[in-house]
Amino acid sequence: MQRIYLDHAATSPVHPEVIEVMSIQMAEVFGNPSSIHSFGRAARHVVDTARTTIASSIGAHFNEIIFTSGGTEADNLAIVGTARAMSDKGRHIITTSIEHHAVLHTCAQLEKEGFEVTYLPVNEQGCVQVDDVKAALREDTILVSVMYGNNEVGTIQPIQEIGEMLNNHQASFHTDAVQAYGLQAIDVKKEHIDLLTTSGHKINGPKGIGFLYAREGIALSPALFGGEQERKRRAGTENVPAIAGLAKAVEIAEASREEKRQQYIGFKQQLIDLLSAQEVDFCLNGSLEQSLPHVVNLSFLGTDVEAMLVNLDLAGIAASSGSACTAGAIEPSHVLVAMFGKESERLRNSIRFSFGLGNSQEQIEQAGKAIAQITARLTKA
């Protein structure tokens, strides 16, 4: 039985070229980048080269890239770092009800510390309205955090419009771009983004590495204390092999972005067409047009999400019920609750499929046929 991986939004396989680059670094470049001798300078050169590559990918400057252990740390640094640095100017934060838990749980912690957080609603396509952001904005608002593209349903948010609206306000603008980076063309200056979060393992890079873009001059307090790495913004010896691997993954993603976008959009349409041809009773959660190319979330009427996932796994197909960080949780997806309400049937029968490296049209066809057979069996039971 051929196993088919359709859960790239949870994590992606490491690209062979990334593995090769990291292997060389681990074998040959072991110096501490803070050391001034030749071994340290060799490691520093790797880190600096990677920082240049990554900064270029989003239209940022070299010194605006802070390497982190991944998206969660980058989100925490952006949100907590801003809150602490700007607490004398206000204690109000705006975010949305569909953010990743790395944002939501961080905001919840800040609420316990006396900050006030406004959680904005979304429409049935999973999109926040710019007017709602504007209406929630106050003089004491210090941070607005809106994800670039949703990890569960793929909806792309109006980032540039929100950024432009915040131009003359003291609030910093943060976007969690973990799911969008590598597939969406992002320009932090053009889109007026102050803080942007990414993670390596979503773009065929290694786990345990990511970065936070922080605009030059932005108020940001460090979350870790120790050495003076990352210009005193993130203490700890740099993970040189992972940083080199991340840079290689970024380089590959940038070179193949448009090709991958078209391929994944094609996979999405192919799957939907196959299911329609097989007369599967399903609904699309989110927008087909205004969404990330690699994510599609479908509600299969008359099925149960747990039974569906088990049967898919038995058929060799890996998919997800939403965010990988809530796998095994009893409570329904907070994203679908925000979109459709607590009583919606979609909360109990929705599956996320996400495409990436290694997928083919043949795999999508095989998966579509298997899904049709499974739904027929489950709805007949």
Mind explaining what this structure looks like?
By secondary structure, this protein is α/β, with parallel strands linked by helices. The protein has 2 domains: 4-12 and 256-380, Aspartate Aminotransferase, domain 1 (Alpha-Beta Complex), CATH 3.90.1150.10; 16-252, Type I PLP-dependent aspartate aminotransferase-like (Major domain) (Aspartate Aminotransferase, domain 2), CATH 3.40.640.10. Helix content is 40%, strand content 14%. The chain has helices spanning 16-28, 38-57, 71-86, 101-112, 130-136, 159-165, 229-232, 240-277, 305-314, 334-340, 361-380, and strands at residues 4-5, 65-68, 92-96, 116-120, 141-145, 172-176, 195-199, 210-214, 282-285, 295-300, 317-318, 350-354. The strands form 3 sheets. It has a 7-stranded mixed β-sheet, with helices on both faces. Strands 9-10-12 form a 3-stranded antiparallel β-sheet. It has a two-stranded parallel sheet with strand order 1-11. α1 (16-28) runs antiparallel to α8 (240-277), α2 runs parallel beside α8 (240-277) and α3 (71-86) packs parallel to α4. The longest helix is centred in the C-terminal third of the chain and has 38 residues, at 240-277. The chain is globular. The two termini are 25 Å apart.
Structural key phrases:
about 375 residues; alpha/beta; Aspartate Aminotransferase, domain 1; Aspartate Aminotransferase, domain 2; seven-stranded mixed sheet
Topology:
Layout: E1 4-5, H1 16-28, H2 38-57, E2 65-68, H3 71-86, E3 92-96, H4 101-112, E4 116-120, H5 130-136, E5 141-145, H6 159-165, E6 172-176, E7 195-199, E8 210-214, H7 229-232, H8 240-277, E9 282-285, E10 295-300, H9 305-314, E11 317-318, H10 334-340, E12 350-354, H11 361-380
Parallel strand pairs: 1-11, 3-4, 3-5, 5-6, 6-7
Antiparallel strand pairs: 2-8, 7-8, 9-10, 10-12
Helix pairs in contact: 1-8, 2-8, 3-4, 8-11, 9-11
